[in-house]
Amino acid sequence: MSDTIGIDISKYTLDAYWLSKRSHTQFANTSAGLKQLIGWMRQSQPPLVIFESTGAYHRLLESGLAAHGIGFAQVNPLQARRFAEGTGQLAKTDRVDAAILAQMGAVLDLSADTPRSEIQHDLKQLATARQALIKDRTAARARLQTAAHPVIKKQAALRLRQVERDMAQIDETIATIFEADEDLAERADILASIPGIAKVTAFALLTDMPELGSLTGKQAAALAGLAPISRQSGKWQGRERIRGGRSSLR
Q1: From the CB of residue 106, how many other CB atoms can be counted at a distance below 10 Å?
Q2: Buried-most residue among 7, 108, 159, 195 (CB within 10 A)?
Q3: How much is the mean pLDDT over the chain?
Q4: Could you please report the per-residue DSSP string of 91-112?
Q5: First to last CA, the chain
Q6: How many whole angstroms separate alpha carbon 153 and alpha carbon 155?
Q7: Residue whose C-alpha is closest to residue 94's, from 4, 37, 5, 10
Q8: pTM: predicted TM-score of the whole model, two decimal places
């Protein structure tokens, strides 16, 4: 069983648990706190760091670990919770979660992820904002269609126009990022050359699956969660189901 460090991330703190040392320490989720965390880990050869994907809150940690050449693996929060329950651990505190993440990484012998570049982080943040605007647009359109009072109609129309302006600005920013990166631009052009795939779709695919271009067809299907998973036991055989993968790609 390999040595690991589990880190539970919140908006303000980083709770770290070093499995082999049975040591728990808390740091601020700031640049200064990250510097202290790296120093703490540098006491000896840092093992693999395990943490949950937490959106904007883990970006500073991920960038810092990558900059110092420290391997890390992001895990799905639901999988981490199921692992905890499978070990009989029902309590949920920052300290407990950090220890569970360390144990999960060691027991499952997780491999280090490929660090995302700052460009990939920016694209992901823009894509997340774009998805939120799509939901806002749908809601504004629904209000506009169902509202009877002129004030509500006017507000819905204004909101819809603002959302569309915001989406256009984000789309323009994403396109500029792709055009400025030779590798991204080339891969986007290849995807967009496929009938039925527009540039916006190509940008979204490469944002959510930056590995595209280095995967086989089966690997890409599994990563996107499009590969049916077998379900059988003895003579019983159930219908194959789509499970796991990156739901945003579907």
Answers
A1: 19
A2: 7
A3: 88
A4: ---HHHHHHHHHHHHHHTTPPP
A5: 35
A6: 6
A7: 10
A8: 0.73
Tokens 């894509």 locate to: 127
CB atoms within 10 A of CB 249: 16
> What are 64-117's pLDDT values in tens digits?
999 999 999 999 888 899 999 988 888 889 999 999 999 999 999 999 998 888
Shortest CA distance to 249 belongs to which of 217, 209, 219, 215?
A: 209
Tokens 């986007």 correspond to what residue?
188
Residue 102's contacts (CB-CB under 8 Å, 6 or more residues apart) are: 4, 5, 6, 17, 18, 19, 50
Length in residues, the chain: 250
d(CA 116, CA 114): 6
E strand or H helix at 236: strand 236-237
Q: Record the tokens describing residue 72, joined without a space.
A: 């890390």
Query: Residue 46 carries which DSSP code?
Result: -
Summarised one tens digit per residue, pLDDT across range 184-210 is 999 999 999 999 999 999 999 899 887
What the block records as the tokens of 212 is: 């595209």
Is the CB of residue 29 less than 8 Å from the CB of residue 14? Answer: yes
**CA–CA distance from 127 to each of 3, 134, 206 (Å)?**
35, 11, 11
Query: Which residues are 177's β-sheet partners?
Result: none
Angle at 108 between CA 102 and CA 110, to 5 degrees: 75
List strands edge to edge, sheet with 4-9.
23-28, 13-18, 4-9, 48-52, 72-75
Residue 208: helix, strand or coil by DSSP?
Answer: helix
